[in-house]
Design brief:
Elements lengths: L2 H21 L25 H5 L9 H4 L13 H7 L1 H8 L23 H4 L2 H4 L3 E3 L5 E3 L4 H4 L8 H9 L14 E2 L5 E2 L11 H6 L27 H4 L9 H4 L34 H24 L4 E2 L7 E2 L11 H15 L3 H4 L1 H14 L20 H4 L6 E2 L1 H7 L3 H7 L3 E4 L5 E4 L4 E2 L6 H4 L14 E2 L5 E2 L15 H5 L8 H7 L22 H6 L30 H4 L9 H4 L28 H23 L3 E4 L2 E4 L23 H15 L3 H4 L1 H14 L18
Helix pairs in contact: 4-5, 13-14, 13-16, 14-16, 18-19, 26-27, 26-29, 27-29
């Protein structure tokens, strides 16, 4: 018998047992509308019966199942709008198991039948084949067995429904005014009021911006699904599906001090480094960070309600619709802005496990709500360090397809780097000068890095061992150097430069310019992008050849900053490996860090401006500014003026200092490069692609900037080009 058929058979057997349980056996009368005890099964071997009987799903005396017992108020029992999740019969109706249309509940369920969520609700022919769930936003998610949980634990509202309500009052509705009532299709007055996400919307929290359960503000980006770690990123991964309890003992395997569910409130990952709520405590658990933001948002809601909306507001967590006026009745003065913030406040409260399900998403919703109401968030934090900032374009750029292509997957997905390392991946450059990562395939879009991106899950917490790193230039380098036999030695910092190495090099630029004359404009020439945060190629200088290095010139290699001290030469020497911030305290041994930008190591006036007290960054900036002037002079002489803005070069035909726009209003990328011009432009833009270049290898940077000026015909007599030391004898 195949597995699926076996599940169907088990489901049928469970169904029979559960039906008998619900009826109390053949000798027992049917339960009344006021039943208060869980049904007792006469079949002792019904799977997981004891576990289920102690769960909330079996608590038939509780409000979720007894809310409709007053026949005068609810003559039809559990209405069709509620029956899917508040009765097993309603859920089966939703699945179409009663012969009705699947995907909706057709009829109310008598209150007497609201006897908890019994076995057949989740174990039946319909759920065995069900793999997707549609959220209130209209987004469909594929999630296997967990869709059984997510059909009900998804909430009832979303950003989509909040926006739809506001839209009823016009396209230009004033966000800070109480809109006048409008007529609906039936001619009845519609007023702006509160929308309630409903209860225990854990799936909406878990999936974040993928399902838009919170109110996501325009032009802001949000965390997607909280992937946590493999095996613990789903409903049944973290909860017993029958008792519904959290698998705390498994949490304790990684989180110290966890013995109870209450202890989970103290947990925060090493990736959660900021002080989100601004209370000065960046060590408290994520539950308390969210709690602090909730308090700040409520304060701002109340201030806004009184000062802008014109009426005092109060919140009562136990009384629908929760937000009340001074008279204890429904709050009367809803503005669109107030509704959005209040909705997010409720979203954060109605999932009591939000601090585990999707804490960063909740942080972002609360932070943005405070901001939108005019609150001061200067001491708070919204975003994580780059590796863990799941809301940023580095990880969200592929949300439309859900898949990161192989060219990008190594560094923009949680599992790409481990796959690249396991497969002995390398970097190749084709005949057109394009670089490719070989050894990693397309990966699912992720919510930032996970622990196992850098730490070997099979040998946790050890990091992956990387002996050498291939670069886009074809060079192979290692922070560990080589042993006496010439073999590369592994080093943790090699992990960092697997990604912080850029995508281009002298080699790729030269490959793209083959057969072209130095000063002849060619529309086919395009400016290659190094990519972002290319610290690795800066650090290794001539060994990596990441900048454009001119023929006949000598360049400095790896920057051995403090080699004599045996430290401060590697990524982890200078940066916190999780927060990613520079370890300024380590610099204090040798430097005055009052102003890090003022640090310099030499009295040489490299830029020739007479100032030998300015920081080395100042020296680089002066030379870079001179290079930009030379680029503009050369471009104009070649026939097409150029301007640099937003980290790129554009056409500036009228020389007004602004990028020209085409008929569609889009800026016009520079399209009149000569080989000589594109080399210099490549080197100029390098500075923007490594904002820490002045620390990583400042002398190498000054070398290629000065050489670029010289190649364009500029005067470099005032500069002092850093020398390359003679090889040690």
């Amino acid at each position: 018998m195949n597995f699926k058929k076996m599940l169907v058979l088990i489901g049928v057997l469970v169904l029979v047992g559960a039906v008998l349980a619900a009826c109390g056996g053949t000798a027992t009368e049917a339960p009344t509308a006021a039943a208060t005890e869980a049904p007792v099964a006469p079949i002792p071997d019904t799977p997981y019966l004891a576990e289920w009987q102690g769960s909330g799903h079996a608590d038939v005396a509780s409000e979720p199942f007894r809310h409709w017992d007053d026949a005068a108020e609810n003559p039809d029992g559990v209405p069709a709008t509620c029956a899917k999740c508040h009765s097993s019969a309603g859920y089966q109706d939703f699945l179409g198991l009663d012969g009705s249309e699947a995907g909706k509940v057709d009829a109310a369920v008598p209150a007497a039948d609201a006897q908890g969520i019994v076995c057949e609700a989740c174990h039946n022919a319909g759920t065995i084949s069900k793999t997707t769930v549609v959220f209130p936003s209209g987004v469909e998610i594929k999630a296997g067995d967990d869709v059984r949980c997510m059909e009900c634990h998804q909430g009832r509202e979303s950003k989509v429904s909040v926006d739809a309500l506001i839209a009823k009052f016009g396209e230009d509705v004033d966000p800070d005014a109480v809109p006048a009532p409008v007529k609906d299709d039936a001619g009845k007055d519609v007023t702006l009021g509160f929308k309630n996400v409903h209860y225990f919307a854990a799936a909406a929290t878990l999936y974040g911006s993928q399902t838009h359960g919170g109110y996501e503000y325009e032009d802001m980006t949000y965390d997607a699904k909280n992937t946590h770690v493999a095996g613990y990123d789903s409903c049944t991964g973290c909860h017993n599906p029958h008792t519904l309890e959290v698998k705390v003992e498994q949490c304790a395997e990684c989180h110290e001090g966890v013995a109870t569910v209450e202890d989970l409130k103290n947990v925060r990952m090493v990736s959660s480094t900021p002080d989100y709520d601004g209370d000065g405590d960046a060590e408290e658990g994520m539950f308390y960070e969210i709690e602090g933001l909730q308090a700040a948002l409520m304060t701002q809601i109340q201030s806004y309600a009184t000062d802008t909306a014109g009426a005092e507001i109060k919140y009562d967590a136990a009384t629908y619709p929760y937000f009340m006026g001074a008279d204890g009745k429904n709050y009367p003065n809803w503005t669109p802005r107030l509704l959005k913030a209040a909705y997010n406040y409720q979203v954060s409260l109605k999932d009591p496990g939000a601090y585990a399900h999707g804490n960063k998403y909740i942080v972002q919703l609360l932070f943005d709500s405070i901001t939108d109401l005019g609150g001061d968030t200067s001491a708070m934090a919204r975003e994580d360090a780059g590796h863990f900032a799941g809301n940023t374009i580095a990880f969200r750029d592929w949300d439309d397809t859900g898949e990161v292509p192989y060219r990008c997957a190594k560094c923009h997905s949680a599992n790409g780097l481990p796959q690249f390392i396991a497969n002995g991946g390398t970097v190749v450059v084709d005949g057109k000068g394009n670089s490719y990562n070989i050894g990693v395939g397309p990966q699912p879009a992720s919510n930032g890095f996970m622990c196992t991106t850098c730490h070997d899950g099979a040998n946790f917490p050890n990091r992956y061992e990387v002996k050498s790193v291939p670069f886009p230039s074809g060079a192979v380098v290692s922070f560990g150097g080589k042993d006496a036999d010439g073999n590369f030695i592994a080093d943790d910092s090699n992990l960092c430069i697997e990604c912080h190495q850029g995508r281009e090099s002298s080699l790729s630029v030269n490959n793209s310019l083959k057969g072209k004359e130095d000063d002849v404009v060619d529309a086919k020439i395009t400016l290659k992008s190094l990519h972002e945060l290319v610290a690795g190629i800066t650090l290794f200088g001539n060994e990596a050849k990441g900048a454009y290095q001119y023929e006949g010139k000598e360049y400095l290699g790896q920057n051995m900053h403090a080699d004599e001290a045996g430290k401060m030469n590697k990524c982890q020497d200078c940066h916190d490996v999780h927060a990613l911030e520079p370890k300024l305290e380590s610099c204090e041994t040798c430097h005055d860090t009052t102003d890090p930008l003022a640090i310099r190591e030499s009295e040489i006036d490299y830029d020739g401006d007479g100032d030998v007290a300015e920081g080395i960054k100042g020296e680089i900036d002066t030379i870079a500014e001179a290079l930009l002037v030379e680029i503009q002079t050369y471009a104009e002489a070649a026939g097409t003026p150029i301007v640099y803005t937003n980290a790129n070069f554009y056409v500036d035909a009228d020389k007004n200092g602004e990028a020209d726009k085409n008929a569609d209003g889009a800026t016009v990328r520079y399209n009149a490069y000569t080989p000589r011009l594109v080399k210099a432009a490549f080197n100029y833009r390098y500075i923007a692609k490594d904002p820490g270049a002045f620390v990583h290898n400042p002398k190498y940077v000054m070398q290629f900037l000065i050489d670029s000026i010289e190649d364009l015909g500029g005067d470099v007599s005032m500069y002092t080009r850093p020398e390359v030391p003679a090889p040690a004898q």
